[in-house]
Design brief:
By secondary structure, the chain is of the alpha/beta class. It is about 40% helix and about 20% strand. It contains 9 helices and 9 strands.
Length: about 240
């Protein structure tokens, strides 16, 4: 279920259908992207009493240290794989990025370097990649490699024309798609409002994947929302629990 469908009131569903959805139980997963620049925020994330999944960019000063500390804390981790956006090179996805000009061999070689730089990962999600993720051939190379390593894929859906979910389904790679970007405005009150709205609309969705970033306002908002989610019967689970 997409963002609009999951948060807008489902007027077409009658009370019986809404009760059926609620009876199944709601599950939500939080993912914090863009980790690797600063290790201090990790302690704040780990202090939240919820299994938040941590997605780490490769080749940054704290990539390995964050992965090691989060692993010791029993947290699930992803490689936040940099990919080419449409406004590249004006907007740079960072070190280790996959570019559409690369051939299959170059893509696999760079992907291996990125994976080796972030130990203990269970899966991969894309960082940027609005251009790369629309190239079905390039995406297929990446996802076949990920499948061969026993990992799963979360499509961050940075473009509505992403080929990620369709390719993953076609090749049999465990996958899921992001539902909500929490903090486009980096504003605490806005993030809290989004999270409360998710709770209020819980009879219109069964699972929800929420991506945020390591802003102080975002981490505070998630910490404040966790007890609210639980008070309303929403289970917060590791991302892997929502992978198809």
């Amino acid at each position: 279920m997409g963002v609009a469908e999951s948060l807008e009131a489902d007027e077409s569903a009658g009370p019986k259908e809404r009760r059926k959805r609620a009876a199944v139980g709601n599950r939500a997963a939080f993912v914090i992207d863009d980790m690797g620049y600063d290790i201090s925020v990790l302690d704040e994330i780990l202090a939240i009493d919820a299994p938040i999944t941590i997605s780490i960019l490769p080749h940054l000063p704290y990539s390995v240290a964050i992965a090691s500390q989060a692993h010791r804390a029993g947290r699930e981790m992803l490689l936040h794989l940099p990919m080419e956006p449409y406004d590249y090179p004006e907007r740079c996805p960072g070190s280790g990025a996959l570019l559409v000009q690369m051939d299959a061999g170059e893509i696999r070689e760079q992907l291996e370097k990125d994976i080796l730089n972030v130990p203990h990962i269970s899966g991969v999600n894309n960082h940027m990649g609005s251009r790369f993720m629309e190239d079905e051939g390039k995406v297929t190379v990446v996802l076949r490699d990920i499948k061969g390593r026993g990992l799963f894929f979360l499509d961050s859906l940075t473009t509505r024309n992403s080929k990620g979910l369709a390719v993953a389904k076609r090749i049999g790679l465990p996958h899921a798609g992001r539902d909500i970007f929490l903090d486009n405005d980096c504003d605490f009150e806005e993030a809290v409002n989004i999270l409360h709205r998710i709770v209020e609309k819980r009879d219109t969705w069964k699972t929800m994947i929420i991506i945020g970033h390591p802003h102080e306002s975002t981490v505070r908002a998630i910490g404040a929302a966790v007890p609210v989610f639980r008070d309303h019967g929403i289970r917060i689970v590791p991302l892997s629990d929502l992978i198809e």
